[in-house]
TrEMBL record:
GO terms for molecular function: kinase activity. This is Histidine kinase. Signal peptide: none annotated. Residues 204-283 form the Signal transduction histidine kinase internal region domain. Residues 302-405 form the Histidine kinase/HSP90-like ATPase domain. The lineage of its organism: Bacteria, Bacillati, Bacillota, Clostridia, Eubacteriales. Keywords: Kinase, Transferase. Coiled coil: none annotated. Transmembrane segments: none annotated. Pfam families: HATPase_c, His_kinase, PocR.
Amino acid sequence: MLNNRNLHDLIDVNILKNIQDRLAEITGLAYNIVNFKGIPINEYSNFSSFCKKIRSTHEGLRICCDANAHAGLEAALRKKPYIFRCPAGLVDVAIPIIVNDTYLGAIFFGQVRTNNDNLSSINNSNYYLKKHKNCSEFIDDYNNILYLDYYKIESIAYLVQIIVNQLVEKTYLKSIEEELNFNNIKLMKEKEYRIKLEEELKVARLTLLQSKINPYFLFNALNSISRLALIEDSPKTYEMIVLLAEFSRYTSKHIGSKVILEEDIENIILYLKIQSIRFKDRIKYEININDNIKKLKIPSMVLQCFIENAVIHGLCPKKEGGTIKIKGEILEKVATITINDDGVGISKDKLFLILNGSDRIKNNNVGMSIYNVNEILTRCYGKNYRVEIESEINVGTMIKLKFPFT
């Protein structure tokens, strides 16, 4: 990430200028900061008249910038201050600015004379002195240049390097923090998007599975209504139509969504009332739901599936009918709905096939309805919330459904 960024992007230019000005004020030397091409990125500090005149010409500025580019790169390769003699014969120092092994620029200081004649020279040292040897003003400016012992230049160079390294370290840590924050935000957004997609997928699957839940009750009820309408002018017909209308309205409204348990139980009561009219007194029911879980949200129609199977395939085959008991409670911090009937029961072999979605019962409405509900619960809450069914022939069936409760 750092490799594609410039010095301006990583280090505040105002901070660099303040450092440059303070160093110039303390040491009395000239300072300027350049990018990796040797081009100044801010105003000079404490520049000598001699150097200002050189840089006032296009040729002079070009030669100085080229020299700075070369010296900065040399300092970067050495990874330490590079003391050299510039094309004008003065001593300058390049302090490399390296962030994450990437050379971004350098701080230059100097414009002094010294007692060390063995320094590396860039291009033709003393080029300007030779060119302007007959210009007294130019010679005077050169002679007014500060003279500084070489060991002092070295000491200042390493002091500036410490300051630069501290600034670079803070900058690098800040860049890493920004990158981590950026990645964290990106990951959070991706996670939120993934969760949203998963929720949408769950709803889509829920809608698809619920749409497959056995519709036979509606057709049977309509047939019963039509028969009653043919043979009698009875209030029961009207009552059954009203109950069926309310039941159908609720069912169509909540397909593919979650509903409040209390409302779902009220809809189940509508269903049981319809079946009580249809089968007269053969169908009885008892409902006991703990107040603490009445506001619990559950997938719509999952309870209805088991109530319907208990009535049609458990109680109706018995001549005397039977009773359905629905109980809702909290067991081990889990909301548990238990549906008991004293009907004809289900054989162990058939129950195994139903719970495992065997192909042998794909065309069996009972088996597929139970299997689909099991799929709904496991997709919504996980494998720990699979339907539990216990049944004994001629004794009855117990259904246990569990829902997360907090």
